[in-house]
Amino acid sequence: RQMCIRDRENIAMNFTPGQEHSVFVRLTNLSSGTQKGTVRLELPEEWSCTPESVGYEIPAGTERQIVAEFKIKAKNSSAPVKLRSIVDSEEFGRIADSVMNVTVMP
Question: I need a labelling partner for 17 at 20 to 30 A (CA). Which of 1, 9, 36, 74 fits?
Answer without folding.
Answer: 9
